[in-house]
Amino acid sequence: GAVVSQHPSWVICKSGTSVKIECRSLDFQATTMFWYRQFPKQSLMLMATSNEGSKATYEQGVEKDKFLINHASLTLSTLTVTSAHPEDSSFYICSANSGRVGRGAFFGQGTRLTVV
Amino acid sequence: DAKTTQPTSMDCAEGRAANLPCNHSTISGNEYVYWYRQIHSQGPQYIIHGLKNNETNEMASLIITEDRKSSTLILPHATLRDTAVYYCIVDGNNDMRFGAGTRLTVKP
């Protein structure tokens, strides 16, 4: 199946700093990518939809100025957590699809962010 | 909001079939039924999907009722490594929205 890779797998950062997470589709072009956040013992919550060449669409309650999304190419989307705080500590997961209905989405392995 | 309802948890004996139900009574005609699973601290893993017909692959079978309002994921011979949270998702445009899923525990 298609491969989506996230980097880094885990990161620890200090409060107030920014962290960038990369999501790459390795063997297909992804017109759309999605970013999720998952807190312990909870389900995945969709944060935003990243569209290649245009602005991301954020879900209600997600601060677009805090979670910056860039989808500059058909194989790469990045999520930057700006001015991170301990409450931003979470498991961040991306997914990508080729835009073909019925093919589903392919998920990255996730990034564990810990803000200290 | 998620469009599916799943039991919170299920147990299954190793080597037996695991049957995971999902209700999706408000499914639209163009929406597919997808199943993913998530093992602790990993990204979701695709299992299977279908529209109307029953589907089978190397991992599982998917049985969709004729009215498409419910489905069942079948793992024919569950192993300990199948212990995970299983998510049933109905989707028509690939922005997968997750419900709480079913925590399947396979016991020796």
Compute the number of strand runs of chain B.
9
Order of helices and strands of chain B: EEEEEEEEE
Question: Span from first to last CA of chain A?
Answer: 37 Å
Strand content of chain B: over 45%
Oligomer state equals heterodimer
Task: Specify the number of helices of chain A.
Answer: 0
Uncertain spans of chain B: none
Rg of chain B over CA atoms, rounded to whole Å, is: 13 Å
Structural Rg of chain A: 13 Å
Helix content of chain A: under 10%
Helix content of chain B: under 10%
Low-pLDDT regions of chain A: none
Q: Tell me what portion of residues of chain A adopts beta-strand conformation.
A: over 45%
So what's the overall shape of chain A?
globular
- How can the largest sheet of chain B be summarized? 5 strands, mixed
Question: Biggest interface and its residues per chain?
Answer: A-B, 27 and 25 residues
Terminal Cα span of chain B? 36 Å
What's the SSE pattern of chain A?
EEEEEEEEEEE
- Structural class per helix/strand content of chain A? mainly beta
Give me the number of helical elements of chain B.
0
Structural class of chain B: mainly beta
List keywords for this structure.
heterodimer; A: 116 residues; mainly beta; seven-stranded mixed β-sheet; four-stranded antiparallel β-sheet; 51% strand; B: 108 residues; five-stranded mixed β-sheet; globular
Describe it.
The complex is a heterodimer of chains A (116) and B (108). With 116 residues, chain A is mainly beta. Chain A contains no helices and 11 strands. Chain A has strands at 4-7, 10-13, 19-25, 32-38, 45-51, 57-58, 67-73, 76-81, 90-97, 106-107, 111-115. The relative contact order of chain A is 0.33. In chain B, the strands form 2 sheets. Chain B has a 5-stranded mixed sheet with strand order 1-9-8-3-4, with no helix packed on it. Chain B has a 4-stranded antiparallel sheet with strand order 2-7-6-5, with no helix packed on it. Chain B starts with 8 loop residues before the first strand and ends with a strand.
